[in-house]
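Hi everyone, sorry if this is the wrong subforum. Our group has a chain we'd like a structural model of before ordering constructs, and none of us has done structure prediction before. Sequence below.
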Amino acid sequence: MRNTVPVFLYIALAVAICALAVLAVWYYRLRQQRDPARSALVDLLPQMLMVLDENGRIIDANPAAREALRIEMPLGKQKCDQVLDTWLESRGGERLVLEDEHYLFVSEGDRKVCYQLTKHQLESGGMHQGFAVVINDVTSMHKMLETLRTQANHDTMTGLPNRRAYDEKTRQMVRQGQYPFAVVLVDLDHLKRINDTCGHIEGDKALSFVATVLAQHVPPMGIAARIGGDEFAMVIPDVDQIAADALCEKMLTEIHQLMLPYGAPLSASFGTAVMRSGEQLFIDVYETADKRMYVQKLLHHAVREV
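Answer:
Right subforum, don't worry. Here is the predicted structure as tokens:
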């Protein structure tokens, strides 16, 4: 379910875009009909509404648009794009275009505000009559989307990216040919014993400690993720096998610094493999790292038994 949550918000955004398009057409038709009561209702709307001619000049605008964008009177002289550029520049803003969706980010005091701009072509009798533009504050929806995206891609307990984020990162690196990079798999040793002997709070504490160590050593272009109960994975760009193994030794030393309540140091098993070129399959590199991690885990269990 977690992986599908953002999809619903994207659907909500699409519905909002359609609603704004309907609002734009409605505004245009009201102005054509010159209905005083309905025009007064439009004037009270918080959304910025404008009507443009075929050349993009503003020929009508409601009070919200005239006040916020400082549209000059009489109407019909200024082009919409020029007005928006001036407004963005004065507010330290920027424009983001995602396919057919336009977003305007501006500063209002200490907060960043996100506006969504929709532009709808107007027709009458099959003839093009210009455009209707609606600019709506979608800051709360934008923040909700970012929150849901974070929740969908991060492990709630450790704060690390989750399996979904890790898989997307590795696909991206393979797709873009960002070689070489090391695949590092990490398994917390004896988690069941820690939970059974000391309680799940101590187990969670051990997991969080390992996550902190990994996060401190992952480079900016890499990733450290929790991909399962006691399993972690990393991608380390621009390293060879020797450098990857040396980094794992350093992280293991730091993990040993946490002493468990029953007197033993915390431990973890590492496995590494390097993807050097696109001639390799990622799944083969991953499986090599997994086998090496499993061998180290057997050694750690053998030492414990001794």
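For your construct planning: The mean pLDDT is 85. Strands lie at 48-52, 58-61, 94-98, 101-108, 111-124, 127-137, 181-188, 223-226, 231-237, 268-275.
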